[in-house]
Amino acid sequence: MLTGRGFTLVEFMIVVLILGALAVIAIPRIMAGTSTAKANTYGTNTDLINRQIELYYSNTGS
Fold first, then answer.
1. What pLDDT score does 3 carry?
2. Cα-Cα-Cα-Cα dihedral of 58, 61, 57, 59, to 10°?
3. 54 to each of 41, 43, 51, how far by Cα in Å?
4. Which position among 5, 22, 43, 47 has the lowest Cβ density within 10 Å, counted as fewest Cβ atoms?
5. How much is the pTM?
6. Between the CA atoms of 48, 52, 55 and 57, what dihedral angle is there, to the nearest 10 degrees?
7. According to the model, what pLDDT value does residue 16 have?
8. How many CB atoms lie within 10 A of CB 28?
């Protein structure tokens, strides 16, 4: 006999369905945030490299 403890299969499947729906919503947002962060890093690195090149030319005079 069942003692009434634990989840039924239907309850477990509903939980899995809800978690899957949340994952479908969250994963594209996370990926978009990652690509935005990479683009910002690229821009910052490019600015730093340009400043270093300008400093080099101003220090060496060439």
1. 65
2. -50
3. 20, 17, 5
4. 5
5. 0.50
6. -130
7. 96
8. 9
Kindly tell me the burial class for residue 12, based on how many C-beta atoms sit within 10 Å of its own C-beta (0-12, 13-18, 19 or more): exposed
Q: Torsion over CA of 54, 55, 59 and 62, rounded to 10 degrees?
A: -20
Q: Taking the chain, what is the end-to-end CA distance rounded to the nearest angstrom? A: 89
pLDDT tens sequence across 16-49: 999 999 999 998 888 888 888 888 899 999 999 9
Q: What is the DSSP string of 12-59?
A: HHHHHHHHHHHHHHHHHHHHHHHHHHHHHHHHHHHHHHHHHHHHHHHH
pLDDT, position 32: 84
